[in-house]
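Hey, resending since the last one bounced:
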Amino acid sequence: MEEQTQNPAAGEPMLEVVDLSKKYRNNQVYSVEHVSFTVSAGEVVGLVGSNGAGKSTIIKSIIGVLPFTEGSIKVGGFDVAKQSESAKKLIGYVPDDHSVYEKLTGREYINYIGSLYGATKEQKKFVAEELAEQFEISHALDMQIAGYSHGMRQKICILGSLTHRPSLWILDEPMVGLDHQTMGLLCKFIREYAEGEHSVLFSSHNLEIVRKTCDKVVFIRKGKLANIVDLTEDKDFDLDKYYMELNEVEHDA
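The structure tokens again:
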């Protein structure tokens, strides 16, 4: 049985990515190379880079579905490669394709995902009632997901990932396809969720959302770490200008 530990206190590392490198089979070039960063308890961190920069590879390595070539990843002190079960129990994940089980109703999906992660009856009820109301999807919980719109599928995927109140909540491009009102709601919820011991890591191309929501931004360029910006210390940092300059360097390279 894997050793259990308490969640880190606010300000201490919840996620530690150290010298992460990933090379796919039959590929001579690293998709991700020597990337290191942390996400502390109570912190919201944005993972930013152009298409193909390696953001999704990093995220899939963190959640344990993609084996990595070098380096280490720890979640709540658990080594993702050696203590995968304990690490995964601390993670809630929203994939970029928002894939769900279409034959289930929204309520059945919430209960199913909750059961996989050992969520209590009370936790499932909270998600199905209070969070569903907050995300304006209560009316569709007993409908089959196959009949959901794209935005509704994103919402039910988000709710499913929260059933066990994960210590580390990871979202891959969560804002794509959402209407303006829902994006604002999700940003507000992300900030509120991170208060205390929870941590959030999300990838996004929307720099306005990143600026409003994140404490720290990790910039990835061609699979490598380009910069880490602490927005709590440098509130005037121009994300748009830096991102444009980073892309210009990438195109000129």
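Strands lie at 13-22, 32-40, 44-48, 70-75, 78-79, 91-94, 168-172, 199-203, 216-221, 224-230.

Sorry for the duplicate.
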